[in-house]
Amino acid sequence: MEYQERVINLFKNDPALLKGYKKSKLAVTLVEAIEKEIIEFDYTKKLNWQYLFDIFNQLPDLMKGNITLQLELNDKLTYMHNMLRNLIHSKPSNLPDEDNYNLLKQLIEKMENCLLRIYYDSPADYNPDKEEFIEHIVFTAKSLTCLKVACSKYPYIINSFDELGIPLVERVLDAYLMALNNYLSKVNLGPLDDLLYYDEVMKVIFAGKIKIDSYSRERLLTKIKDFVLRQNILSPRHKEKLSFFANNIINTIMETYQEQTIDYLSYKCEIHTKFKEAHMLEANRIYMTNKNIGPASSMRHIISFDCENAKEIDDCLSISLSDGIYHLGVHIANPSAYIDFNSILMDEALRRTTSIYLDQCIPMFPPILSENVMSLNKNANRYVHSYYFDIDATTHELCHFEIKREIVTIYDNLENKDFDRILKRGCNDPILENTVILLNKVAEILKQAYSLNAIYAKVNADDTPQTQGGSVVESAMIYTNLNVAKLFSERELPFIYRSHTVDDCQIQELNDLQNRLKKQKNTSRFINLLNLLKNQYPRAYYTRENKGHFGLGLEYYAHVTSPLRRAADNISNLCIDTFLLSDYTKEDMKRVIALIDEAIETINTKRKTIEYYEEEYALKKILENKQ
Prior knowledge:
Elements: H1 3-13, H2 23-39, H3 50-63, H4 67-89, H5 99-119, H6 128-140, H7 144-153, H8 168-185, H9 193-207, H10 214-230, H11 236-253, H12 262-269, H13 277-289, E1 302-306, E2 315-322, E3 325-333, H14 344-352, E4 356-357, E5 361-362, H15 367-373, E6 381-392, E7 398-415, H16 416-425, H17 430-446, H18 454-459, H19 468-491, E8 497-499, H20 504-518, H21 524-534, E9 541-543, H22 567-580, H23 586-626
Parallel strand pairs: 1-7
Antiparallel strand pairs: 2-3, 3-6, 4-5, 6-7, 8-9
Helix pairs in contact: 1-2, 2-3, 2-4, 3-5, 4-5, 6-20, 7-9, 8-9, 8-10, 9-11, 10-11, 12-23, 13-15, 17-19, 20-21, 22-23
């Protein structure tokens, strides 16, 4: 009787008699038996493969610690895995039953768990719920934080396969290529968020303990090459970007190091650190024609309180008290008074979406405008939107709210620490001292309008310590944003809202998955990760539908108070000018709605790209300083 046949008979009937056999030879023989069954597989024949499942249960013990044997059998097992995948994908459509198809899926799961048990200590067995969890992290929640934690603590999960035997790395590559296709499908190129996200996922996977054979690696590279060949390129710029992102992911798969400089990062994220000559010519023309804009229409004493060395000053405050009524003025820079919405400068601002503050500022508007004629600088006359609130000092009721387009003279520019100093010690300027005292009192009333969620405050906190002056300004801005949003919502006019919501449906899905996992063995590590995922705080976003702001405890919210550094605020101001301060037509409404929708898509989709850029930029600066 041949050795293989004798071993298989003993394995099926009395496996205890195999204890004296040499482990390495026994493992090779059992793997060859599995290969023979796979080669002879036929969808129409009745199969009894229970002993193959038993072989995979035993193989880890036979191969554990034997690196030479693992290397010898790795390619064979990988080849067999690909054979199983091909058999699964080639299932005939006219099968009388699914029995053999299900056997193939069960066998590929056993093979994968076997490989994981060989390379890692006590991994949890495969099951659909855990696969659903990995899918949720990577493709639904899109949480790099959770993925990195999972890969560092339980590295075998990056070698997971779905029920059809498709590895995680291949599914991520498919998502990357789909995101690249969406990006290239737009005339002016589309959003980068998903593309950069799946790029990072691939890096996390390849930085972990991924077991990828030459066949699978070549399969990934072939997918990329086929994708490139299928593209119908729109322009030289599209062709250039296609080449960049295709080579970028090829480098990751081939584990080839590519030095990623600041210039490389800026190109990848499409962060323009400089303005084009056309933008600068337009900015210079606007600057020259707006040096003197005429006399102020308001006699109020208007003062800014800002962070140290602020260059773009887009909000100021004024206040008086008479007959028990606080007359609060919030005065906001008005870029649209200088720049037409059809201007290339407004187009560029909407493309940039925000100013980026690093060790240098990457502004939304050219500095000759944002730091000069549009900035609310001391002793200068400036175009503003003024928001006037009459608030009862006793009942704290808002008695009157009005919005005006004005020219104002800025009385003074101060830092937040100056506010604190004057509040404690007073100053020689009675106007300034009285303003600080009244603002400090009215701020306590304004803060009653909202309830800052503790987690939201922590997530959105910056590194600078909060001063009393900063707190007062913050309360005035939140109060203004709230009342403008409320006004538009009540009048049912088109607007861009700042929304912050908790997805109860997603939380419930995770709870259901968690409950299923609790009923199974070896799932505590996954349940811990699920808790991490559930506790990730939702992000705020822009929408044309008012959905309230959970983090601030508000039913209405918008952004109108920082138009020099946020594109959304300029859209808000366009809505104010069009629907509140002017007569408008149906055509005006259609035009503005189209602008709102376009801005919402651009800003929401570019948010993560900018965060990615900021994080990578900071890391590169740290590395540069260490060299």
